[in-house]
Amino acid sequence: MQTSSKKFVVDIWSDFVCPWCWVAKRRFEKALDRFDEKDAVQINIRAYRLAANHTPEPMIAALKRKLGNADTAEAMMNTVIKYGNDAGLDYRFASMQFGDTSDAHVLVKAVQESAVKKLLVEALYEQSTTHGKSLFDRSSLEAIAREVGVSEESIQLAWSSVELRVEMEEDEHFAAQLGSGVPMFVFNNEFALSGAQPEAVFLEALNKMQAKLQVKEEDFAGQVCGIDGCKI
């Protein structure tokens, strides 16, 4: 896991074609806004592909296949739409697509400016979920990226860098070790929370992260040092 100069680190694994991930993202963001030390939190966006090497297809068809029947898929979509609306998000499954999001993840990794990266992540969700834009065509991804201020250098880096694709795969391997799907949130590399949890649950996790760090700091403050070193 990468290091940070900030006090807290939250690593988030998600996929842009995961129906619940946008809802989870918004709920976490609202919880973070209520967190006392929100400015001390670094957010790391991690890659996870639900459909690696999968040819793009309509989302509704993919859900029917994965969930086994049309009724179950319809119930799931209605639930996501409801919770999406509650969070101010507009889900339009009829125009959504499901497939391999490698290029989208690598494009995010190519952006170094945290503010621009944040805008790009949100735009990828909104443009694909609400407006039916493709995440599998590079010209479509480039248009989305330019709209939020991603530089041409970052775009070209995304398409040419082998290292960024390796980093994407490393993200997935680490997530597999944790044994959970997406969305998944890891707090200070100590404990994880999976799923589109309620805002209150995310806030509780942030406070738990803060409390754990405080205990560690108090333990260090209680150390006694002598000529042979330090001990508690």
UniProtKB/TrEMBL annotation:
Domain DSBA-like thioredoxin intervals: 9-206
Gene Ontology terms for molecular function: oxidoreductase activity
Pfam families, alphabetized: DSBA (PF01323)
Domain of life: Bacteria
PANTHER family: GLUTATHIONE S-TRANSFERASE KAPPA, THIOREDOXIN SUPERFAMILY PROTEIN
Protein name: DSBA-like thioredoxin domain-containing protein
The species this protein was found in: Pseudomonas fluorescens
Lineage: Bacteria, Pseudomonadati, Pseudomonadota, Gammaproteobacteria, Pseudomonadales
